[in-house]
Amino acid sequence: MLSKSKFTRGMNCQKSLWLYVHKNEERLVSDASMAVMTQGTSVGELACEYFPGGKMAMLEDYPNIESAKRTQEYIAHGVETIYEGTFIFDDTLVAVDILHKQDGKWSMFEVKSTNSVKDYHIKDVAVQYYVLKGSGLELEDAFLMHFNRDYVRRGALDIKQLFLPESLLGQILPMQQDIAPNLQLLREMLENEEPAIPMGGQCSSPYACDFQDYCSDLIPFLEQEAKILSSIPEVNEGEVKAFVEMIQYPVHYLDFETIAPAVPMFDESRPYQSIPFQYSLHCQESESSEINHYAFLAESNPAIDPRRALIEQMIAQTRSAKTIFSYSPYELVQLRYMIRDFPEYKKDLELIVERLIDLIIPFRRKYYRTETMEGSSSIKKVLPALFPEVSYNDLEIGDGMAARYAFMELYYIDDVNFIATTRENLLKYCHQDTLAMVKLFEVLKRV
Ligand code: SF4
Question: Domains of the chain, with CATH numbers?
Fold first, then answer.
């Protein structure tokens, strides 16, 4: 039997659905995908509070024939709000997050942990609508319930403000005529041999496909063979020198790590707003002086907003700097959020913004490049291109996303050893980012 997720998987890439059904053991679900799925589940549970007091149809971990029978029983007994209501039609099973009856008319609500409607959501809701209508439900409307990006948490979560239901009826009605033929097409495809579909944009969008390892193993070795890239720098001396001459000591190097909770955890934050929980700061008072390092890493206590302590320590530790380097505009964006959300620190934060200079500029504008940077100005490419002995691969936490997940995990874990090790890894990772900036500026100064 097909399902909503199989239908959308197959519509994105038939081979992905074929592999899911026939070679599921080849599937590799990344930690990031697992975290997204877990987050989706908890957001779905939270959204049920939008229509409280309903009945849960799915008592197992996944929707099945039993939850479909239970849904029909609830409907027959006059239940007006059903969570995970399950329906079967045209040999296809779907569950909808919330089914709600008002003034005698049913509406369905599919919950997504995003700030807006995406194209692939519309396909989800279209197939759900097809099955619900086909199974005989008098369905008046179909909504996608996503986060309200303008919601600012102040005190307890306001569920009615946090979520924003948006009717998709206008988009999904014209799609209905194509659903039956597409379901049939997918069924026939599943009866045949593995489809020969080359890798392409569908492998990473709208989701990272969980068969990428399997498919890339099939690409002939010759196609994958790496070109030998030169590490000899190509330098626009005038531009690099002009950049370096603009820099005044003391020079500080600043890098933030952030979490971005889907559901705002702290007052004065919005859905998915980035919340800095850590920074690393390398400081050099003059060209000849030694380099000192400072760090901030918040306690993982969900009752304490990490931003206030971070702001206060950062203001104190950057007071002497004439130049504050960041690498990418990310730090500037975070500082602007801090100014908006903590106006009491506005004056001091604006002083940091005034002294902020983006060290990525000479690399992004290709004033200093090597082939080994592979056209990228990301610090993860630039640093190993210039310092092959330094690699992020040696770190337990090797990128900002991993740091984000690692810190979020600490909110739910009591194991003191695990917490201590993770905190140490976070400190090492962030330290490496600002140390990398120190090294890159040294390279520019030598031009
Ligand atoms: S990796 Fe790409 S080609 Fe392979 S199954 Fe997934 S989406 Fe299809």
Answer: 2-195+207-217 (3.90.320), 234-445 (3.30.420.10)
